[in-house]
Design a protein that fits this description.
This protein has ten helices and seven strands. By secondary structure, the protein is an alpha/beta fold.
C-alpha cells in the first residue's frame, strides 16, 4: 500500500513558468528530485542546463505572446499526452512610486503577471477538462493583500490573481480541476533586492522551494511553506493596511541606511 501511494504522488507532469532563476529555479530542481517530469517556460532557460535531467523540458517562451504559448503547450501535450499541473510563477515588476510610473509600465506588469497567467490557464484548460483532472497554482504574494511602497502595479496584479484563483476553483470544480494559491515568503533573490527589505528578514529560496514542493499536492486552497508564513498571511489579512505601512517603513529605513553608509 505504501509503494502504491508513493507512485501515485510522484511522477506528475508539471508545467512551470519563470523557472530559470530564484525561487522558480529551485522549485523546478526540487520537483525533479521528487520524481516529477517538468516543463519550464521562460524568456531565458540557460540556467536550467545545470540540472542535467532527462525529465526536464526547457522552452523559451514569452508569456505576452499568445502564439508562442500555444506552440509551447502544444509541443508539451504532444510529448506528454497529459498535463497534471500548471504553476504560474513568472512575474515582472517595475520599482517606482505610482506618480513616476507610466501607464505602459503598469500595463506591462499586468500583461505578464495577470494576463500571462490567464493565457497559460486557457492553453492548458482544454487538456485538463478532457482528462477531467488538473491543478492550477498561481504564485501570489502578501503584498497583494497589504500593498507595498513603489510596487503598486505588481501588488495590484497579485490581488487580482488571488481573486481569479478563488473564482476558478469554484467554476472548474465540475471538471475535477483545482485552482490554488501559493504564498512563498520574502526570499533572498536577485529580483527581491530592489524591494529594500532587510536581509535578515529574507529566507533562503532553495529551502522555501523545497518546502513548497513537498506541500504542493495536499488538499488545501492556499499553500504556504511553514506555520510562520501561515501566521503572517493570517495577520496580514486581519490588518492589511497596518502590515503594508510597517513593511514599507522598514524597507525605507533600510534603504536610507544603505545610502548613508556609502
Amino acid at each position: 500500500m505504501l509503494v502504491v501511494r508513493k507512485l501515485k504522488v510522484m511522477n506528475r507532469n508539471i508545467i512551470i513558468t519563470g523557472g530559470n532563476n530564484g525561487f522558480g529555479y529551485y522549485l523546478v530542481k526540487s520537483l525533479l528530485e521528487n520524481g516529477n517530469t517538468v516543463a519550464v517556460l521562460d524568456l531565458n532557460t540557460d540556467n536550467l542546463t545545470q540540472l542535467h535531467s532527462k525529465k526536464l523540458l526547457a522552452i523559451n517562451c514569452d508569456l505576452t505572446e499568445q502564439l508562442q504559448i500555444e506552440t509551447s503547450i502544444s509541443s508539451i501535450i504532444d510529448k506528454w499526452n497529459r498535463i497534471d499541473c500548471l504553476i504560474n510563477n513568472a512575474c515582472h515588476v517595475t520599482f517606482s512610486h505610482f506618480e513616476h510610473k507610466s501607464l505602459e509600465d503598469i500595463q506591462n506588469e499586468f500583461n505578464v503577471n495577470y494576463f500571462g497567467h490567464i493565457r497559460l490557464i486557457k492553453a492548458v484548460l482544454p487538456t485538463m477538462q478532457k482528462q477531467r483532472y488538473g491543478i492550477i497554482y498561481n504564485v501570489s504574494s502578501s503584498v497583494g493583500i497589504s500593498g507595498f511602497e513603489r510596487i503598486s502595479g505588481y501588488a495590484s496584479t497579485k490581488s487580482a490573481l488571488d481573486t481569479l484563483t478563488r473564482t476558478l476553483n469554484i467554476e472548474l470544480k465540475e471538471y475535477n480541476i483545482q485552482a490554488k494559491i501559493i504564498y512563498p515568503t520574502l526570499m533572498n533573490t536577485k529580483s527581491a533586492l530592489p524591494f529594500g527589505i532587510p536581509k535578515q528578514m529574507l529566507d533562503n529560496p532553495k529551502q522555501i522551494a523545497d518546502k513548497i514542493a513537498r506541500k504542493l499536492f495536499i488538499n488545501r486552497l492556499i499553500i504556504v511553506p511553514d506555520y510562520k508564513t501561515c501566521l503572517f498571511i493570517f495577520f496580514t489579512r486581519l490588518f492589511p493596511s497596518f502590515t503594508g505601512r510597517i513593511l514599507s517603513g522598514l524597507t525605507k529605513k533600510n534603504m536610507n541606511e544603505i545610502i548613508a553608509s556609502r
